[in-house]
Design a protein that fits this description.
four-stranded mixed sheet, globular, alpha/beta
């Protein structure tokens, strides 16, 4: 086996976001082909060009040291990468001082499939391991948001709206399975557990599959995370899942189902986020039709936009609407809970805005 270079941590996050952008660029809408998100939600991703996706390798060992030539090669391959590359080595003596790079120590065993190949000799941590590594740098709520990104149909920091739609890189089920495999492997070899494992598991409990935008992820988090963490403590919703109409409504309107941003199965309740990407006339018409038809079929439809996420009084109204739609009694947040809720929303929205600003700067350049 030749020399290898392993990218991880924040560089791996950037790599996977760049992968999402490349897949989006390889699958543009045409006169006969709808936007990528529509294909993901309504056509189950059939026929999507995934040629720019990295391939999982059989490698399971972290390189012992850093090969300077491969660092140069990585720089040439990742022309838009951040100024500092995060490199992983398995031995303390293998760490090197290299301009524009930081060497991280990654000891212990890792399951087969933990690394993906990018270029000849250059690897990146898999999405599941990247999530675990993110626990070192991200706060708990931002780690939950990052989990929504990995398990959703968007990548931060790309495109006109600050994100692009792309296939999900993993799922909550696969994240949990990877952490289980890693823990079992370490235990079988008498090795210590990697830093951040407990934090990653705690965050994963609040991650949901299928968000199609950062704001959808924030809305889900704010409504369903526990009050002690700044949420409203409501039951989890399904994100971008199919909602089937009753037989009479399906016959009357000529449509069987809609895909809704958030839905609570068994309660006849959906919530729709109206974001900037909904400015397209065709999308606005679809959303209005969706609300009209679902309402005629007896569904309760709650609409939310960015201004509601930003204002405590308006967000309380959204939470009240969802609470009553779930047949629950509204419980007004106390002063401490209200402060936590404002803090959670502000931190999440600030992160989204920072990523959006960075994407705008990249486009301007």
């Amino acid at each position: 086996m030749g020399e290898r270079l392993l990218l991880g941590f924040e560089t791996a996050q950037w790599v996977w976001r760049a992968v999402g952008r490349r897949v989006a660029e390889a699958n543009p809408p045409t006169a006969t082909r709808p936007p990528l998100l529509v294909r993901l939600l309504f056509e189950r991703g059939e026929g999507i060009d995934l040629g720019s996706m990295p391939r999982r390798t059989r490698a399971s060992k972290v390189p012992e040291t850093v090969d300077g030539a491969l660092v140069t090669q990585a720089r040439l391959a990742l022309t838009e990468a951040p100024a500092t590359l995060d490199l992983c080595v398995s031995r303390q003596r293998g760490r090197r001082f290299i301009a524009g790079a930081t060497c991280h120590l990654m000891t212990g065993s890792y399951p087969v499939g933990s690394f993906f190949g990018l270029d000849e000799g250059i690897m990146v941590t898999c999405p599941e391991l990247t999530f675990l590594q993110a626990a070192r740098a991200l706060s708990e709520e931002l780690l939950v948001l990052y989990g929504h990104e990995l398990c959703g149909y968007f990548a931060h920091g790309m495109g006109e709206h600050g994100f692009c739609n792309c296939p999900a890189l993993t799922s909550t089920e696969r994240l949990e399975a990877y952490l289980d495999r890693l823990e079992a492997l370490r235990a079988s070899r008498g090795e210590g557990m990697p830093w951040g494992l407990r934090k990653a598991r705690a965050a994963l409990a609040h991650v949901r599959d299928g968000a199609a935008s950062p704001e959808e992820a924030v809305l889900s988090m704010v409504l369903t995370m526990p009050r002690r963490m700044g949420g409203y403590g409501l039951p989890p919703a399904r994100l971008n899942a199919s909602v089937r109409l009753g037989a009479e409504a399906a016959r009357l309107f000529g449509i069987d189902e809609f895909v809704c941003d958030l839905s609570w199965e068994g309660y006849g309740l959906v919530a729709e986020f109206q974001g900037a990407q909904h400015k397209l006339r065709s999308r606005r018409s679809y959303d209005r039709r969706k609300g009209n038809v679902l309402g005629a079929d007896g569904w309760k439809v709650v609409e939310v936009d960015r201004s509601m996420l930003e204002r405590a009084s308006l967000m309380d109204e959204v939470a009240k609407s969802v609470t009553t739609g779930l047949g629950r009694r509204w419980r007004q947040p106390g002063a401490r809970d209200a402060t936590r809720q404002v803090g959670l929303r502000n931190r999440l929205l600030r992160f989204i805005d920072d990523m959006r600003a960075a994407a705008g700067a990249t486009l301007a350049a």
